[in-house]
Amino acid sequence: MKKRFLTSMALAGAAAFALTACSSDGGDTGSSGDASGDTGGGGGGDTIVVGFAQTGSESGWRSANTESMKAAFSEENGFELVFNAADNDTAAQIAAVRGFISQGVDAIVIAPIVEDGWDDVLQEAKDAGIPVILEDRTVSAAADLYAAWIGLDFEAEGTKAGEWAAAEFGDTETKMVVLEGTTGSAPANDRATGFDAAIEGTMIEKIDSQTGDFTRDGGKSVMEGFIQNYGVDNIDLVYAHNDDMALGAIEAIEAAGATPGEDIKIISIDAVHDGMQALVDGKINYIVECNPLLGDLVAAAVTGVVNGDSVEAVQYVEDLAFDQAAAEAALPDRKY
Ligand code: AHR
After folding, report:
1. pTM, rounded to two decimals
2. For residue 65, how far is its CA from the centre of ligand 1 (angstroms)?
3. What is the mean pLDDT of residues 56-76?
4. Ligand 1 and 154: CB distance under 6 A
5. Contact 195, 162 (CB under 8 A)
């Protein structure tokens, strides 16, 4: 287990990273602002040019996260956002970051698809004097290669999900299958760790676990395989690392003639609108939230780092958890 967040300390961004003036054209990236000539310089009223390397568009959570980031990094807020979505391809995401470095953006924000493999490109950004802020997912690289990380406690999410499963099903023989997130990603790793520890010593038996890549189609096809291999009557519980995969599993369970939420119980993570609706409808039994609305915090951190202010290096956003009654009460006011 990598030690990523041992301390929560403040970094003076400008002390660690020199400012870099820039423009924002080029490559396969898309810009939400104009690549005007007077960008760069970071702070002091100038536009801050930010390259954002998003994972892709794999889930409802991801769409909400992208929207939150685009709203926060708007022209009105003093930013020019150069946006890239890597379609869940790690090499493409690293190439996008290299593109931001050669464009000389003021700051780079990354939602890293996987934890490993970031050391070289983060070092290149540091050498170029461009601060990097991580959002959502974490990396295994040394913490001095980036200025701040803002996101969720994925292990705690897994623990909450596992504790609920243990309380509900732990005393009965329960055959569970797991729909894992993207292999090597922080949420897949940490949600597994938290859940597994919480169900240890209970009568819940994990009979299979495979990746559905955080997508609805992936969740559906992996669940179809589980049903084919074990039989729909021999699966009692699905733990899905996100709502989209749970929604795909619901389709597979219904196609096999069983009732999701009754014949096969489902626990998932995210609490996006479609997942919450399925919980209200009784097709999912419990959801742990993963809040995607990180844009304002990330934008504040970028501004702070670029302006040389003190910025909290590790910022956790709190998550809730919902059973059916809580989902019914919360759904009308959900923002995503
Ligand atoms: O990193 C957060 C995870 O990524 C969300 O739980 C999932 O839906 C998304 O794809």
Report:
1. 0.89
2. 9
3. 98
4. no
5. yes
